[in-house]
Design brief:
The complex is a heterodimer of chains A (161) and B (152).
Chain A: E1 11-14, E2 19-21, H1 35-51, H2 53-72, E3 77-80, E4 89-94, H3 99-108, E5 114-116, H4 121-127, E6 132-136, H5 143-159
Antiparallel strand pairs in A: 1-2, 3-4, 4-6, 5-6
Helix pairs in contact in A: 2-5, 3-5
Chain B: H1 3-7, H2 12-19, E1 32-38, E2 43-51, E3 57-65, H3 68-81, H4 86-100, H5 129-143, E4 148-150
Helix pairs in contact in B: 2-3, 3-5, 4-5
The chains are: A alpha+beta (161), B alpha+beta (152).
Chain lengths: 161, 152
């Protein structure tokens, strides 16, 4: 297979008559490798291991359960996606308020969420909704931050009363 | 950005137009129409116009799905443009475009925006400017005989 691009390290010998490529994998890895990302990945793994993967998963599960309860307790809020073993994200709609308005108003209270069709228009069509608001919970999030989100959703509802 | 500037986006007049959008219907005798779409956020609307021989917008309406900002903007646009000469509507488009991108300060520069000046704070929310301008681009597209208009 010919190389798809040229650059440093991918050749063994070049003359006017003939080019000999380097052995695999170098033949396909022209130029300076992505050193910064490789080091960054190592640092990220070290960082995660200071918490431990089991603890991280446990914490996210607790946040998900807590957040599900808290959001469901708000009148007019519906959680979209309720699989038993889902990852720690909470996608939801609020009756009568478009997700983009929720996003701006919640952002106003210091909570960053994602809104829109999440590059998933067929799913939106399936649920007959234009968009959802989505809180993604990571291992560094806290229950207090979920309380802050809930409070912000109540406040947004008040604006649209 | 301070807290007041942010909450100012949802002013009473915008909330009211969102709740009860004006001219929210299909226009059966439309001479011009276009579909406006923002694929990135999913806002989607149709704008219909009935333009008479005197080049006046005799009637205008819209239908569609979107956030409060896009719905209120479309509603206020139709209320403002009804009865207006095409030429004046195009001038107003330019003014509104400059308003929502922060280039026109209605307090400093002479303009014919009237109630539309309520959208003057939106340039503080770059992600929401497209919501406010979608219906206007669609209206302009309809007058220029484009069938679909995308703001992405």
């Amino acid at each position: 297979m010919p190389p798809y691009q040229g650059g440093g390290d991918m050749i063994s010998k070049v003359t006017f008559e003939k080019t000999t490529y380097n052995v695999l994998p170098y033949k396909f890895e022209a130029g300076t490798p992505n050193v910064a990302d490789a080091i960054g990945l190592g640092a990220a793994i070290d960082y995660l291991q200071t918490f431990g993967l089991d603890n991280t998963l446990q914490h996210k599960k607790e946040l998900l359960d807590y957040g599900t309860q808290a959001l469901q307790s708000i009148p007019g809020v519906k959680i979209i996606g309720t699989a038993q073993r889902k990852t720690s994200i909470l996608s939801f709609t609020v009756d009568g308020i478009h997700a983009h308005d929720i996003g701006t108003l919640v952002d106003n209270e210091g909570v960053a969420i994602r809104t829109g069709h999440h590059c998933n228009q067929p799913v939106m069509q399936h649920f007959h909704i234009p968009a959802t608001s989505r809180a993604s919970l990571a291992f560094y999030n806290t229950k207090e931050e979920i309380d802050k989100l809930v409070k912000a959703v109540y406040k947004a509802k008040k604006v649209f009363e | 950005m301070d807290h007041d500037t942010r909450t100012e986006l949802y002013q009473q007049v915008i909330l009211e137009h969102n709740k009860k959008p004006r001219n929210f219907k299909k226009l059966e005798n439309a001479t011009h129409s276009a579909e406006g779409y923002n694929p990135l956020c999913g806002d989607h609307l149709m704008v219909y116009l009935h333009v008479n021989n005197a080049q006046t917008i005799e009637d205008i309406s819209f239908e569609g799905d979107g956030c409060a900002i896009s719905k209120a903007s479309a509603s206020m646009m139709t209320s403002t443009l009804k009865g207006m000469k095409i030429e004046d509507a195009q001038k107003l488009f330019e003014q509104f475009h400059r308003l929502v991108t922060g280039e026109l300060d209605p307090g400093q520069e002479e303009n014919t925006l009237g109630k539309l000046a309520v959208f003057s704070g939106i340039w503080h929310f770059p992600a929401r400017v497209k919501c406010a301008i979608l219906s206007w681009h669609t209206m302009k597209g309809a007058l220029e005989h484009q069938q679909t208009v995308s703001t992405e």
